[in-house]
Amino acid sequence: MKKRILLMGTLVLPLLISCDGKQQEEKIIDKPKVEIKDGMMTPEILEAFGRISSPLVSPDGSTVIFTLSYEDVEENKSNAEIYKMKVDGSDLERLTVTASSESNVRWIDNGEKIVFLRKDKELKSPQIFVMNVDGSGEKRLSEVKNGIECFEISPNGQKIIYASAIDDYNKKDEELFKGLPKTSGRVVDDLMYKHWDEWVTSIPHPFVADFTDEGIKNAKDIMEGEPFECPMRPFGGSDAFAWAPDSKSLVYVSRKLKGKDYAFSTDSNIYHYDIESGSTKCLTEGMEGYDTNPAFSPDGSKLAFLSMATPKYESDKKRLMILNLQSGEMTDLTSEWAYWPEEIVWSPEGEFIWFAAYYEGTEPIFRINVATKEIEEIASGICDFAGVCPISSTSAVALRHSMRSPNEVCKVTMGEEVKDITSINAELLANLKLGEVQKVMVPTTDGKEMLSWIILPPDFDPEKKYPAILYCQGGPQSAVSQFWSYRWNFMIMAANGYVIIAPNRRGVPGFGEEWNRQISGDYGGQNMKDYLSAADFIGAQPYVDKSKIAAIGASYGGFSVYWLAGHHEGRFAALIAHAGIFNLEAQYLETEEMWFADFDLGGPYWEKNNQVAQKTYSTSPHLFVNDWTAPILVTVGELDYRILASQGMMAFNAAKMHGLEAEMLVFPDENHWVLKPQNAILWQRVFFRFLDKYLK
What is the pTM of this model? Predict the structure, then answer.
């Protein structure tokens, strides 16, 4: 008899009063109910996991607040709420019950109150709210016309810096558009006219204002008249701001470029703004790569930040820099370390900086002594850490996840075992059969060893023969660590009866600068040989049917699949590419952040004397369609302006014209990722229907 388990959730339906006085019901997205059959992961179960983010410790170190979101497949959206608990995990309490997500949660008034962002129903835009620490006394504090994207409160609680879109950017020529109210035309006269998934019609600016119990007052645009964005699109947030401990000044991050200059440069800088005088000073003049994540030391004497040295190279080593604000001396704390931080935060005492960093296939927590540059590993395992928030010089809270489980909040203390202090998804995971994760070292064609992860199906039987999947990573400089993905999830692949191998091929961080940088200018080179080595390794295992192996991947992983399609020599029985590059020449001209293509591809394809560029373009997948033999599934989002949907459509068309079996899944309302719950489930269903057709 098949075992079925039903995990229940609650839907709260509060009564709201509309403007005309009528009562309306608005559905609260809460923990969903989901049916588990025989312990197997399904797309619906994958969407049912609670998603934890942004843990933040109270000023006295006793309490943690965080957000927890769930998705509602029927409503086709998600919702995040604020939770609170003691730092040992006890007294877990939900503080908000609303139909709009809360975010950017911060402590104020020495931990007596909490401020956060939420979309206001009346203003129909994100605004700042405040509430007591028990969730009572909620009040809206802002009425910013264009809404607030992110914010930080000054240490003394009297000022705020927030980001909001400005009105006077890219105004239409009124004479040109006179009498044409229904025209949809856009006049473009420079590059960077669209970014990530939107046309650039507005940009955010930083505003400083008084922060009072009565609301936010006397706001001032501290970049007024400058046609530049802060925070930087598309992913910048409150990490672009940092207040000095005395609240008399702040720093912000901006890439003060536009048009073609913006499209071809990673030169962001950190700017110091003095509240009293209103003066601005660039602190990183002459540093031509990304400078990001500023953080003042607790005594205000130093500024830490992350910096990349190489212009245009968005995946360069992140140096942990310290600027002495009195002497102006700049120090690279990680100059002798082959790895680099992904995030930084000072310990309360100011002696150490804590961070998470990719290191040999996982993402442990480290701390560095600012005076001696000594780096210590604080917490590690077959897992990744993120969101580190120190309590003291020896302890912190953080997020921990792995290929077998999504984020939970954990307590990290030097010399002690890491302890999860939330168990949001424990019940769901306990009723699922999960695949085993193994670490192996795969020999490469140039005599090195490549750390790879093998994931086995639940109830694995070594005497059986299983179909297998080669996972190709995107980025291209993105780590194949112990990540938990809601798209490329290895547990659901394993539950469907597949063995997976996920190699840390050339070009991923966590194995030193040389390993990471080798891929630039060598797209069709050593990293592709690494993939073939991994495919051969998994195909040689006695429990794998080497005639039933697929290659899958997204973004650069999609490019990898297209490239492997013309070079695999019969290794793969099926291929799946999402948002992949098919034609490198077209990609050079189509993408929006052109510095990436310019650096990684080696330059424009028309530079015939540029040997690096010509080598790269000669390996473009579209040149090898005549050698394609395996069935292929292509998936794309039409709002993807990083790698246009036309790339995947060209690949699909080429496959069909070449006489191959091919399918394509197109999402008109998705960008580089598939985010909407119903789209995500459809993607998984199409994914496994295709694999099962050719591998089972």
Answer: 0.95
